[in-house]
Amino acid sequence: MPFNIYTLTRLLFIALVFVIPDGTDQPENAAEENQEVITDNNVIQPYSENSWYWQYEGEPVVLIGASDDDNLYQWTGKKLTDHLDLLTSLGGNYVRNTMSDRDEGNVYAFDEVKDGVYDLDQWNQEYWDRLEFFLEETSKRDIIVQLTLWDHFDLSGSWDQHPWNPQNNVNLEEGIIEGEEDVYGGSLSQNIEPVLNYQQKYIKKLMSVTLQYGNVLYNINNEGSQSSEWDNYWAKFIKQQANEAGRDIHVTSMIFDPSSSVRHAMTFSDIYSYVDISQNNQDSRGGRGPAHYNNIMDWRKKLGANPMPMNNVKVYGSQDGPNYSAGSGREAVERFWRNIFAGTASSRFHRPAGTWGTGLNERAQTSLKAMSMLLEELDIFNASPHNDLLSSFVELQPSAMEAYCLADIGEQYAVYFPGGRYTIDLDPWVFAEKMKIKWLHINEGTWSEEEIVDVQWEGGINQWGHRGTVRLETPGNEPYVALIEPVEE
User: Fold this and answer.
1) Is residue 246 packed enough to be buried (19+ CB in 10 Å), middle (13-18) or exposed (0-12)?
2) Domain 41-382 classification at class level
3) What Cα–Cα distance (Å) separates residue 157 from each residue in 101, 102, 104, 310?
4) CATH code of the domain made up of 384-486
5) Do the Cβ atoms of 455 and 434 come closer than 8 Å?
6) Half-sphere exposure of residue 217: CA atoms within 13 angstroms, side-chain side
7) pLDDT digit string (tens) for 326-381?
8) Distances in whole angstroms, Cα of residue 137 to Cα of each of 23, 191, 412
9) How far apart, in whole angstroms, are the C-alpha atoms of residue 133 and residue 280?
10) Quick check: 7 pLDDT over 50?
11) Which residues contact 475 (CB under 8 A, 6 or more apart)?
């Protein structure tokens, strides 16, 4: 980590705000010290003018991304920085980071006092150095990190060697816990106090690092199947840590079923300020094609009275399958685009290219570049999903149409067409005589020349069903977005 005045300020923040590892209370001036590092204006938070979206450093932002691992904090040096540079060069600004340690080359949080044996009272400094380097480098690049505290898959294949196993540490009595269920959920529900105390200590240390940065969103659980009590306990715990440091943070918990993720966030809206619906982005738990989009529209209605950002930190699907739970690589791309056209706050290709995901491969790069081109032209923060403005020009076969519309009615309309040759009709709703249209060729990352077309009006102004029509015909068989604006007379 480069040592400069910025780094020194953060190190002072650690020393003054959090006393680790003995767990003594923070000083009374913790909030004051924190405000010297982070202000309310430069942290990730729901957009003040449209809470379906996020804002960062005072500006609204759509989060789009991809990466080749789920725990990038374990990467070091150029391996990490080159990956982040590639992402930002494409317009990406969003990564996922589970606090996972199950892959080859990963390090554990605790000090190894002898071969394969750890002391839960002592930290492995390399682990925390990696985390801080990762957060430093993402912060420099204005990349938002969605950080997951607990991932029960970590212990599924590594229990025999993991520090949480009492056989592998000098702190816990053998037999006090016997597996991952006792660690994730059981420590609380079974009141296994020694384990819970060490978990609290670990999370306090984690928060002492992450609260130095304003680019972090928090997720309690990855594909959780534990009780609401477990998720809510840790959500309250980290929010309390943030409060004591003078910070507001935004927290969710990803349930294995996407509908339950929405229900959970709505039920405990005093704890959670956004929802992650990633499991909708796979065949086995969500939907494909219009069903995928319709699920989001349903949840959007449920959240309508109290809107909050809906994130998609994982978009499943890979051309390297087959994996009938994840879905195809083509479906991954279409889900990535449909998420944004459904008005969600984020969309990120899942890790890495292979049977479950796409990662930051060439296919993902193409979509990231094209999406960033669209977002430069479309004022998405004033737009809403409006498939009600679309109709099939083949009246007897409406199912032949697949297109998705975002609109700020009277100002801008964007229509996404998955691969295939489509013709659909757009009703601009407001009275207009002419519209200008240009096409974004997603695979080539190019805009067409602008064309002017007449709006065709049917019926009289006083007749029921009086409507306008702008016919949109895709220029080819590949994926396109049409951007339409009224021509000012």
Assistant:
1) middle
2) alpha beta
3) 11, 8, 12, 31
4) 2.60.40
5) yes
6) 31
7) 889 999 999 999 999 999 999 999 987 677 899 999 999 999 999 999 999 999 99
8) 28, 39, 36
9) 32
10) no
11) 439, 441, 448
